[in-house]
Amino acid sequence: MRPRWPRRVSAQVLLVQLMITTGVSLLTTGLFLAPLGAQLDQQAERRALAIAQTVAARPGLAGALRSGPPDPAGPVQAEAERIRRATGASYVVVVDTRGIRYSHTVAARVGEHVSTEPGDVLAGREWTGIDHGTLGRSARGKVPLRDTDGTVAGAVSVGIAYGSVRALLLHAVPGILLYAGAALGVGALAAYAVSRRLRRRTHGIALTEISALLDEREAMLHGIREGVVALDRHGRIRLVNDAAQRLLGLGPQTVGAPLHRVLPPGRTADILTGRVTGADLLTVRDGRVLVVNRRDTADGGTVATLRDRTELEQLRRELDGTRGLTDALRAQDHEHANRLHTLLGLLELGLYDEASAFLTEVTGAHRATAEQVTGRVHDPVVGALLVGKSAVAAERGVALRVSPATALPDRVADPRDLVTVLGNLVDNALDAAGGSAGGPPAAEGAFVEVELRAEGSTVVLRVADNGPGVPPAARERVFDDGWSTKPPSPHRRRGLGLSLVRGLAERYGGSARADQRQDGGAVFTVELPEALRPREEVK
């Protein structure tokens, strides 16, 4: 039965590292031991050769070799045995030019012919090697024995038993294996430590699950409609899904780039990098209202989610306008009831002329406002917004006037954007003029003036009021996301409207600016290029 391969990543890594460490240790030991035997053989051969050279250099040995026949008790045998015992060699054999032994470890073999021909040595050449002889396998060294005149008188052969070399090798093996075992143990401990760390980082998941988790993550990130942006500890983008690219206006090649290079400075960048903290933070990016939440990761990075709340914000503002109009109509209901009661009393008293004059006076002002708007603003959606805002302004005690220079044709490409810009500007102007919703009426003479005109295909909006105005130092900051001069509201976040206005203007390629009105108050001017359709496209 085949052993089961572990499923967890950490266990697989541990097993693989142990196998690698064991294999490397065995290979290193083998590579070390393989040349060790040859090195020991070479050392023994050089030792045998050195002993042989020492014997051959003994004075008088060549003369003793020529002085008579081989003798087990002769001087050659005695000198050879003395050197053998002193050096620990296995044998020291001296032969004449015929190959007859004059010395041997076994005295009975003195006078016999050697087992291996010494021809090369007798020719004057030294020799070393591992060979077999009558004493078994040995490391041998052979040198020629020369007379005083340099002629070869014989040869000296020294052998060191191979068993002693093998013993040296076996003696070295335990130390080598000890070091190899220590290296293997250190490697095993290191592999175990790496495995434990990896198990904590991977939460013990199986290797086969990693690929599935990555596939599921990619499908989830690119399938959801919420934007997801992940930054590392250095502020570089390491993940951005399709929705985040669309909401932030980022290109596809942004992974790995620092955030400050792909996103301009502003509230959006401050929220993503953590300079602005909180939950459900609102920001405006390219005319879109985004809700951002961020969370720090364990490695010092950040993951942020983005939700598009543009349509909800527009709907909320439309509902705010409708609520204001409803409040105005509810307040006017009492006034209309009083007027009807007055009209009924005049009729009951038979004062018909007075009743007619009273009715004409009451209805004339409202009719004049509606006619003034529709006569200058030919887009029905924008005109309806101004009529509704005029009723709200009247309830707050503020006069909403349409500038004589107003002339807006019925060629608006997207009335919703124009309504968003105009509605925000008018609401801010009404608040600045003193007619806050739900508060006391504005001071006498408070007004808001609206001007809408076309310059080619560009729509220019100008909304002025006679309120306190905007200080010069704040004329740029009023367009910053989250900045407002109004007190905080418990129901909604302040400082979003003008930021949305500038975002829409810049999306059209236009601009939005705040100035001081000549007679006091503020003037907001917004230019929207290409906001009007060409005449030939209008049917």
Automatic annotation (TrEMBL):
Residues 393-532 form the Histidine kinase domain. It comes from the Bacteria. Residues 220-255 form the PAS domain. The chain crosses the membrane at residues 12-34, 176-194. InterPro entries: HATPase_C_sf, HATPase_dom, His_kinase_dom, PAS, PAS-like_dom_sf, PAS_fold, sCache_3, Sensor-like_sf. Residues 472-495 are annotated as: Disordered. One of its GO terms (molecular function) is ATP binding. The keyword Chaperone does not apply. Keywords: ATP-binding, Cell membrane, Kinase, Membrane, Nucleotide-binding, Phosphoprotein, Transferase, Transmembrane, Transmembrane helix, Two-component regulatory system. It is a multi-pass membrane protein. Its EC number is 2.7.13.3. It catalyses: ATP + protein L-histidine = ADP + protein N-phospho-L-histidine. It is found in: Cell membrane. Pfam families: HATPase_c, PAS, sCache_3_2, SPOB_a. This is histidine kinase. The lineage of its organism: Bacteria, Bacillati, Actinomycetota, Actinomycetes, Kitasatosporales.
